[in-house]
Structure formats: C-alpha cells, structure tokens
Q: What sequence folds into this?
C-alpha cells in the first residue's frame, strides 16, 4: 500500500508538468457495479508507472482517492469512458478526464473520435510496445503474469505520451509572435491542461 501512496503523491506533485495516463482492466462480462480488477497510472515520462490491484481499489489509500478525484489533475486515455464508469462504481474518479481520441479530433488530426491508441501513437510518432494477447486473459487472478503487467501499463503510458504530444502541437499553434509581445505585456503561464496558473511575468525587452 505504501508504494501506491507514494506513487500517487509523486504524480500529484508533478501535475504542473506531466500528463497522467489512466487505464483499467476487468474480466469480460462483469457488471459495471463490480468496478475493475486493476488500475494503471503513468506519467508521460514513464518514470512513475504502476498498477493498483483490486484489493487496494475496494479499500483505497487516501492518496489514491485524492489523486483520482482532483479536478485540477488531468487523467487521460483512449476510450476512457467505460473505465471512468467502473471507477465511479467504486466511488473513485470525480475529476478532470480527457479522451485523447476526442482531443485529437478537436485538433483536426483525425476525422473520427474512435481512432485507436495505436493509430494515434503512430500519427504522433510515439512508440507503442506490442501488447500481445493479454487483453482477454484472467484479470482477477491472485497474481498477474509479466505479460499481463506489460499489457496493462502500456496503454496508460502511451496515453500520457500521446496527450503530451497533442498539447505540444496545440501550444505551437498558440505561440504568439514577437510583435504581439510588446514591452510590458503581462504573460500568464498555465500547466499543460490549462487548469492551474503556474507563473505570471511581464515582458521586458
């Protein structure tokens, strides 16, 4: 439990800089009210990437609850709606959630929302590790296999990287010209999700 608490705290501390990938797995056929069997979270660097098993979701550490419910911290993923519904059944996630497929369509990079994560990764030149056939494996097993663990964390990590790339493209489009930054112009800098004010400065040339 301690490692999950520390990982969540580290993610929260880095929220001004990093996007946060979220993904979940469960055994097919189980109702939404059951929730999920494992939750995966990752930053876009891969330096904080971890799995949360079901026992820690039924009785979650406070740091995990706070992180998932924080409306100022973006949790991103592809086709993330079903994951969020199942987490809500466990009274988790109440905040800022973004579907990267929808975001890519809004930025006119794709023509449909239901584009695959693999397609988005290729489009934005982000490497996506092969995931094998673990998707249909037994996710409520007492001990997950290495293949399952790899499969599980790849989507969360890839989602975080794709979202960071989408934001970088968006930032390029919004970069003001030198003539727009006249001497004395007040500049406000926000985090990548445009939620938290990170700094205020004044142009001096």
A:
């Amino acid at each position: 439990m301690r490692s999950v608490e520390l990982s969540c705290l580290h993610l929260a501390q880095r929220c001004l800089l990093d996007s946060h990938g979220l993904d979940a797995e469960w055994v097919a056929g189980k109702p939404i009210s059951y929730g999920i069997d494992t939750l995966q979270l990752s930053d876009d660097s891969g330096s904080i990437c971890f799995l949360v098993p079901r026992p820690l979701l039924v009785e979650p550490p406070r740091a995990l609850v706070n992180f998932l419910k924080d409306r100022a911290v973006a949790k991103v993923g592809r086709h993330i709606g079903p994951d969020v519904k199942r987490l809500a059944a466990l009274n988790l996630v109440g905040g800022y959630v973004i579907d990267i497929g929808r975001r890519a369509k809004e930025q006119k990079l794709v023509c449909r929302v239901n584009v695959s994560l693999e397609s988005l990764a290729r489009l934005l030149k982000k490497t996506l590790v092969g995931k094998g056939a673990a998707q249909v494996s037994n996710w409520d097993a007492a001990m997950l296999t290495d293949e399952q663990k790899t499969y599980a964390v790849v989507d969360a990590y890839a989602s975080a990287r794709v979202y960071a790339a989408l934001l970088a493209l968006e930032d390029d489009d919004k970069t003001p010209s030198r003539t727009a930054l006249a001497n004395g112009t007040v500049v406000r800098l926000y985090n990548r999700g445009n939620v938290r004010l990170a700094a205020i400065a004044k142009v001096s040339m």
